[in-house]
Structures are given as structure tokens and as C-alpha cells.
Amino acid sequence: MIEQKQMLENAVNTALNIANDLGVTQAEVALGKSAGISVNTRLGEVENIEFNHDGAMGISVYVDHRKGSASTADLSEEAIAASVKAAVDIAKYTSQDPYAGLLDKRYLEENPIDLDLYHASNKSTEDLLALAKQCEDIALSLDKRIVNSDGAGVNSHTSLQVYGNSNGFLESYGSSRHSLSCVLIAQENDEMQRDYSYTSARDMNELLSPQWVAEQAVKRTVERLGARKITTQESPVLFSPEMASGLFGHLVSAISGASLYKKSSFLLDSIDTQIFPDWMSISEDPHIIKGIASSPFDSEGGRTVKRNIIDNGFLQTYLLTGYAARKMGLESTGHAGGIHNWFAKDGGLDLAGLLKEMGTGLFVTELMGQGVNMVTGDYSRGAAGFWIENGVIAYPVHEITIAGNLKEMFMDISAIGCDTDPRSSLKTGSILIKKMKIAGA
Description:
Elements lengths: L1 H20 L4 E17 L2 E19 L2 E7 L4 H15 L33 H18 L3 E20 L3 E20 L2 E11 L8 H13 L10 E7 L1 H14 L2 H5 L20 E3 L22 E5 L2 E2 L6 H7 L13 E3 L6 H8 L2 E8 L9 E12 L2 E14 H6 L1 E4 L9 E2 L3 E9 L2
Parallel strand pairs: 7-12, 11-16
Antiparallel strand pairs: 1-2, 1-4, 2-3, 4-5, 5-6, 7-17, 8-9, 8-11, 9-10, 12-13, 13-14, 14-17, 15-17
């Protein structure tokens, strides 16, 4: 990787030098190269083998607060020069934007640290196919109700990201991502259900075993059999960790700069305002070794730092790129490109404890549709899961809709479990909300 890293950094430096020679005082260049393989098996047969090798250089220049951008997959000096010139020419015709420009020097990461994010796999295509087949074979043998499979798959990808700008920043880092998944179909009488499980990690050697993935896929699939509809009502709702991370994903969108300066967020003007119960906190740590969302700097070279997002229920920060910060008259927070390893504080209860605390209500394990209005916070989505009575699962449910308002839902969180999903960049356990509307039969 070292040789490729040097080659890509040289290409970025070439583009910046060409921009400078053309009299451009503000330019930025992002260059990414990725490579990997995806394999799938189904019912013991190879279904798909796909190799990918992608990469392109993106060039942006700022001339008199006008932005021009161009890209090229050809990294020869001639192609880079043509792309820089194209970006400069485009800038002549774009509208002036007083907030356009590079991230201010004082926010740039001066000493990026190695977060051990790059772990290329040495497994052959045959090895990966064998891993997928092993997982599927185990799954098909565990329960006679598993009658079919949508296959098992292994993905193994690496990438190298380089970013440089005319403020003197030029850095790069490599990363990797590997996963194993299995999708199954169960049948009982005339009913059929489908579900899946997966494991993912930076290092192939840290994936959970094919046995674990198979067992989880079987468990999740057969538990859906016998699903019923329930009557329309109001009740407590418990979101599984996978669904809970999506719930907090709406928080991410609501406090991101673009939503705020466009005034399309239900959390406008909410800094230092209580939006969650006073026991609740969410922290961010971009520098977890091998972390799923770790990053030594953001996508515009900005410093990434540990911070509290929510402290005792109060919102501590927005998530701002350099552009959003200038537009809003605030400080950049190093979130160009997204969030970095969020951790929701839990109350110590496992799933069984949460179910007992809820007593009777809905446990949501699947959500469908995109019925969320980020301007008002109104929330309405299709759901499936389990009906809980006296703290234990009574039966699976489907074809229901849950509804509420995110502001109220956030304040009505009564507990967060310790059953954290380690596969997510937004780490949270199951979330119990005191009351939501449920539309059923």
C-alpha cells in the first residue's frame, strides 16, 4: 500500500501545483482508490463473483467565491491538468457564494494519527466462497422450517483516501471492511418468512464465526413465523438495537449543518436545549482503534475530536462542515463526511430486563418506508416485530404502522439497554419509548 499511497499523494500534489500555476489561490483535491471482491453462494452453488477496482480524482477550485469542480479517473499529468483547467473554466460561470471556500487553516488536522483501519485480506476467491458456503450449509441444517435460502455472501474491500488543499494540507489513510451475511426463508404451513444476519469488521480475522451468523439468521427467520396483526392502540414501543441506531440517525440529520441552514430541521435553534431525558448522554470518539467510523480527519481535512453530543439530555453541538459553519456564523466541528463512532449511554438492563420493564407493548425489529418529516419531526413507518405480554414475547406481529413525533419520542425515551449492536457506527442498545400510536387491524 505504501507505494500506491505515494503515487496517489503525488497525483494530488500535481493537481494543486497546476492550480497554483493557473493563479488559483484556493483549491482542493480528493482522490480515492478502492478494490475488493464480493462472492455469493446459494444452495451450495456459486451465484456471483464480482471484483471491483474503482477510483477517481475530484478537483474543486474557488475563484472570487465561485466554485468550479471537475473529475478524472486518468491520473496522467495531462489529464490532471485538463481537469484543473476545466474546473477553473466552470467557476467562471457559477454564482458567487460568499461562504464558498476551503476550511480555515485553524481547523485542519496537523498531526493525523494511525487508527489501524487498514487490514487487507489474504484469502483467495476459493476461500471466500468456502466461507459463504459453510455459513449457508450450517443454516440450512439447523431447523427443518428453513426451507430455502437467498444465499450467503462475503465482501472484502479496501480503500485509500487522499485529500489535499492549497492551505498546505496533504494527508491520506487506508481502510478496509469485510463482512459475512446469510439470508434465509422459513415456512410453516402456508406461511413463509424471510430474514438475515451478518457480521462485519475492519479485520477479516475479527468477523464472528459462520456458525454464529447461521444461528442468528435461523433464529431471526423462524421467530417471524406465525405473525399476526394487532388492533390499533397506543402502547410502549421497544426498538431493537438495529432499529434504535436508525432512530438516532434522524437526530444526526436534524442537527447537521445543511438541514439547519436550509431551515429544514425540527431541531432549529436547539443548542443548549433539553431534547432528551436528563439521564441520557451520547458521546462521540473518532479515534477508536479499528473503529467502524473512526477517522483521523474529516473529508475536508478537518480535525476530528472527542465530544459530547448529548449531555444530561441537552444538545451540546451541531454537526458542521466548514461551509455550514461559515453560513451559520459558528465553528466547524469536523463532520464533513459524517459522524464518527457515537455511543449512547445505557442504563444497564439487557433485553430481557427491558422487556420486563415494558410489561406489555410492541418490540420492533423491522421498519419499512421513509415516513419521516424532518421539518416537523412527524414520524410514521411500517413495522414488524413481536407483541410483548407480562415482559415476555407472546407472538410475532406484522402489517402495522407506528407513529409519533420525534421531539416527543426523544423526550419519552424511558430506557436504553446494554444490548449494543457492535456492527454499527452509532452504538446503542434497544430503546424503550413510553408510548406511541400503533395502527393495526
